Structure formats: structure tokens, C-alpha cells
Backbone:
């Protein structure tokens, strides 16, 4: 069992590395587009018609993927009062319970995010004419990565409990 959990953890590490690179690329593209938009508007005198829309879509994707990445790294904002009071096994149990509750939310996000993406697939963005499906797809995809990382956090607690880490 420990070897399966370690394998899952290793797979998540590589997957999160890829997601981190994708987030970095999205941030770079978004920064270039916004810089060019400001330059075109104030220096050239004409603004681009598509840059704001693409930047908005990239921001949605970065937020969803970045949240999933932050779950694995333990970087999300949290109230740490109760976990600091508890020690050892009690602290691990609390973390597992909070991750299970979060996992339920991620499953809901995946299901309803997919339904929302399907519902808007015939709508197109005004300037790029891209289907709104692609921007809404960030909800279920981000939810899947959040779920995977949350399961990784839970499995890490079991590895710690068994003395495997």
C-alpha cells in the first residue's frame, strides 16, 4: 500500500511540475498581451480587440490550475488555530477531515463545472469568436487537479502515520 501511495505522490509531483510550467507560460502570455494592449492604446492610439478577452480567459485558467497547485504545496489561505493546538495524530485526523470535505466540494465543482461548460458551448466570445466552452472548461479541469492533489495530501497523511515519509 505504501508503494502505491508513494507512486501516486511521485506522479502528482511530475503532474504539478507540468501544471506549474503551464501556469508560467500562461502568465507570460497574459503579461505580454496586457503590456501590448496598454502600449497600443496609449502610444499607438488604437487598442487591440482581442487581447483583453484572451487575458481574461488565461486568468480564469491560471486561477483554477494555480489553486490546484497550491493545494499540493499547502499554500492556500487557512485558519491554523485548531491545527496548531492539536498535535500528532489529532492534527493528521483534522487535516484528513478537512481534505475530505474539500474533496466533496471538488467533486461538485467537476460535475457542475462540466454541466456549465456544456451549457455555454454554443456561445462565442465577442471579439475572438472562441466558444465559451473553452473558458468554462477551466472549472472541471481545475476541479480534477484539485481533487487529485487533495487525494495526494490525504495519502501523505497516511504515509506519515505509517512512518513512510
Residues:
Amino acid at each position: 500500500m505504501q508503494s502505491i501511495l508513494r507512486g501516486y505522490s511521485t506522479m502528482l509531483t511530475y503532474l504539478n511540475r507540468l501544471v506549474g510550467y503551464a501556469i508560467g507560460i500562461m502568465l507570460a502570455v497574459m503579461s505580454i498581451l496586457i503590456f501590448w494592449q496598454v502600449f497600443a492604446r496609449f502610444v499607438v492610439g488604437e487598442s487591440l480587440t482581442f487581447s483583453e478577452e484572451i487575458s481574461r480567459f488565461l486568468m480564469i485558467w491560471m486561477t483554477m490550475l494555480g489553486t490546484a497547485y497550491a493545494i499540493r504545496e499547502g499554500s492556500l489561505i487557512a485558519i491554523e488555530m485548531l491545527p496548531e493546538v492539536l498535535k500528532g495524530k489529532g492534527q493528521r485526523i483534522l487535516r484528513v477531515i478537512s481534505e475530505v470535505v474539500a474533496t466533496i466540494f471538488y467533486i461538485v465543482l467537476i460535475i457542475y463545472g462540466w454541466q456549465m461548460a456544456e451549457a455555454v458551448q454554443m456561445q462565442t466570445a465577442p471579439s475572438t469568436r472562441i466558444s465559451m466552452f473553452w473558458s468554462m472548461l477551466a472549472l472541471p479541469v481545475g476541479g480534477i487537479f484539485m481533487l487529485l492533489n487533495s487525494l495526494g495530501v490525504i495519502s501523505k497523511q497516511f504515509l506519515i502515520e505509517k512512518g513512510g515519509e
The chain has one domain: 2-161.
